Amino acid sequence: MIPVLIPSLPETDAIIPYLRRIDQARIYSNYGPLSREFTDRLCRFVSERAGGAPVAATLTGSGTTAIELALRYRIAGRGGRLCLMPAYTFAATAHAAVNVGLEPFFADVDPETLALTPAIAVRALAAAEGDVAAVVVVSPYGAPIDIAAWEAFEAAHKIPVVFDAAAATLNLHRVAAQPICVSLHATKALGIGEGGAILTTDTDLVAQTTAMTGFGFSVSSRVSEVRGGNYRISEYAAAVGLAVFDGLEARIRQLREASLAYVSGFNRIGVRMQPGFGTDWLTMTIAALFEPAAAEVVTAGFDADRIQWRRWYGTGCHVHPAFATCRHDGLARTAAVAAGAIGVPFFPAITPEQIGAVCGCVERSLAAR
């Protein structure tokens, strides 16, 4: 069997030097020295890829928590009960909105990019009848977000925007005041096991959301200035993160080589992928894009050849029982997008032979239609 994904974190020997630092400091959580160092390295990494813009970050216990805290900060004092977001996203996006007291209002996505666009959002606002408190824009499978376009959207409509960029940590070519929420889950290209972060140029946002991760305490007191909880990462998670950064350039090279092999293989047989994948951006959960009928033929071929596959976002959040009563804009294209986007095997150690087997299976399945 060719697995669809094999998470890959640093091995024990790479983490041990950082564990020894924990032993020496006897600090295990509460924004310890490793957590602060990991935050600094994350900010520098993102800043370098975003053209040198200064970046600040709040570390969180998960990517979902990052979205929750960013939403809580951005909707404070605002009216509205709805959170506009694409239906085509992982369920965590909708759960985050519900957890801060908002109701998801699901919108359609562009079939080429798989993303919510400002134009689609404007149409959805009309259907939502003025009750939208915030918009969550999702980076589908880690694709870059047009942040400038969403800055213009927010300025025009006076509705705060939060970015769910769970898988896009390697692909943040621009950072602005609007919060970018990333996941540090083991399945991500920059993963530490469990964790997340809010990235932004807004230092006030970082100060407030960091306080939220520690019971709302300010830096210098144990008084809850804002409502929060315990959403921090431990020093052990930070140790894994520092070891990840030590080997990250090698991992990026692996991901790029494997990505380009897929791009070449699928281009040869006329299979689409997301625009710019492999050349402009990288991720760990990749999707081949088909018409729905072709997707069914391809997945049957995968099953016959013992090649694992996934519909990473399922058929959309609106079909989950937890969100079945949520309103939407009609979702004219979502069903076809969800049916046709097939997650294929991808992980740092995937071999050229395995990629060739996946592409060959797709070619045979399409030829036999």
TrEMBL record:
Q: Name one GO molecular function term.
A: pyridoxal phosphate binding
Species source reads Methylobacterium tardum
Would you kindly state one Gene Ontology biological process term found in this protein's UniProt entry?
polysaccharide biosynthetic process
Q: Does the keyword Hydrolase apply?
A: no
Output the InterPro entries linked to this UniProt entry.
DegT/StrS_aminotransferase, PyrdxlP-dep_Trfase, PyrdxlP-dep_Trfase_major
Please list the residues that make up the active site.
188
Q: Decide whether keyword Amino-acid biosynthesis is in the record.
A: no
Family membership noted in the UniProt record: Belongs to the DegT/DnrJ/EryC1 family.
Give the protein's recorded name: Aminotransferase DegT
